[in-house]
């Protein structure tokens, strides 16, 4: 039986997390709200919740089929996804194939520079502190994750990069960078959590070089709604064709 939604646990910037009548499950409800620069810029993107739920469900299912363990259980409704309830590890893993965004400013690196192999960075999940960059030693010192857990997070992040770089390339998009979150199950297994959407990654159109992700919203480039819809349409066609 599908667990039923009960009470909201927390409302974040782009989703509402609900508890269910099953202690092992939560429901992620995807909103249309969009924020950037640690919520200093706010807006909405048309149908984003619906699109992000579809995109994230399809990609998490794909990752599961290719050996990446995730919290994804199944797509529930237009804006709702059923997930395994996890204790979120407060460390965001960022994987970069090319320089864009904060790293360019922080290290005076030219936008577009290629990282081969991909560069991996860690950020402390804290809105109050603006998600600061951290070193591996902080993660162990403050017991945010054990070395074994971090090893799983890194290995899985590299695997996600390899798998999704190919998927996006097949639909004419280059995966520039992305952010992942992980969490622990009660039995302490570490699973990929949260979402994979155009909110948390950069995708450049291979033909035009145009961003097809939240940078359109961040930088007021216009065509935000259209870019989100285009990415989801291309993905849907790709997954339908490969069935
Ligand atoms: N399987 C899960 N179990 C428990 N919590 C989860 C799970 N998957 C995601 N979450 C958490 O649910 C919340 C989703 O909401 P949203 O993404 O809107 O948050 P946010 O505003 O980005 O804030 P945060 O800084 O906490 O990420 C996040 O805090 C995320 O870490
Ligand atoms: Mg979030």
Description:
With about 240 residues, this protein is an alpha+beta fold. It has two domains: about 80 residues, Phosphorylase Kinase, domain 1 (2-Layer Sandwich); about 140 residues, D-amino Acid Aminotransferase, Chain A, domain 1, CATH 3.30.470.20. The protein is built from six helices and 14 strands. Strands 8, 9, 10, 11, 12, 13 and 14 form a seven-stranded antiparallel sheet that branches. A five-stranded antiparallel sheet has the order 1-2-3-7-6, with helices on one face. Strand 4 and strand 5 form a beta hairpin. Helix 1 packs parallel to helix 6. It is globular and about 45 Å long. Bound molecules: adenosine-5'-triphosphate and magnesium ion.
Overall 3D geometry?
Answer: globular
Q: What is the C-alpha radius of gyration, as a whole number of Å?
A: 17 Å
On the 0 to 100 scale, the average pLDDT is 97
CATH topology name of the largest domain, in short, is: D-amino Acid Aminotransferase, Chain A, domain 1
Bound molecules: adenosine-5'-triphosphate, magnesium ion
CATH architecture of the largest domain: 2-Layer Sandwich
Low-confidence stretches at least 5 residues in length (pLDDT < 50)?
none
Main sheet properties: 7 strands, antiparallel
The CA-CA distance between the termini, in Å, is: 26 Å
Q: How many structural domains are formed by the residues?
A: 2
**Approximate helicity band:** 25-40%
CATH hierarchy class name of the largest domain: Alpha Beta
The CATH superfamily of the largest domain is: ATP-grasp fold, B domain
Count of DSSP strands: 14
């Amino acid at each position: 039986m599908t667990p039923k939604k009960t009470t909201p646990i927390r409302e974040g910037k782009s989703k509402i997390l609900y508890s269910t009548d099953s202690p092992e499950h939560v429901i992620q409800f995807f909103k249309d709200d969009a924020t950037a620069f640690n919520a200093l810029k706010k807006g909405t993107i048309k149908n984003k919740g619906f699109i992000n739920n579809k995109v994230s469900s399809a990609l998490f299912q794909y990752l599961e089929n290719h050996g990446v363990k995730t919290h994804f259980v199944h797509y529930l409704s237009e804006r709702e996804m059923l997930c395994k309830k996890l204790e979120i590890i407060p460390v965001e893993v960022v994987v970069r194939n090319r320089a864009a965004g904060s790293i360019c400013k922080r290290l005076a690196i030219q936008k577009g520079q290629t990282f081969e192999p991909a560069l991996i960075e860690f950020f402390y999940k804290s809105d109050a502190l603006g998600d600061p960059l951290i070193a591996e030693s902080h993660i162990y010192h403050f017991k945010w994750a054990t070395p074994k857990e971090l090893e799983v997070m890194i290995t899985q992040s590299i695997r996600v990069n390899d798998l999704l770089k190919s998927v996006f390339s097949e639909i004419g998009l280059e995966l520039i960078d992305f952010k992942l979150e992980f969490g622990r199950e009660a039995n302490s297994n570490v699973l990929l959590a949260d979402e994979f959407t155009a909110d948390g990654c950069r995708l450049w159109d291979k033909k035009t070089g145009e961003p097809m992700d939240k940078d359109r919203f961040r930088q007021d480039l216009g065509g935000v709604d259209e870019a989100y819809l285009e990415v989801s349409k291309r993905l849907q066609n790709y997954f339908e064709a490969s069935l």
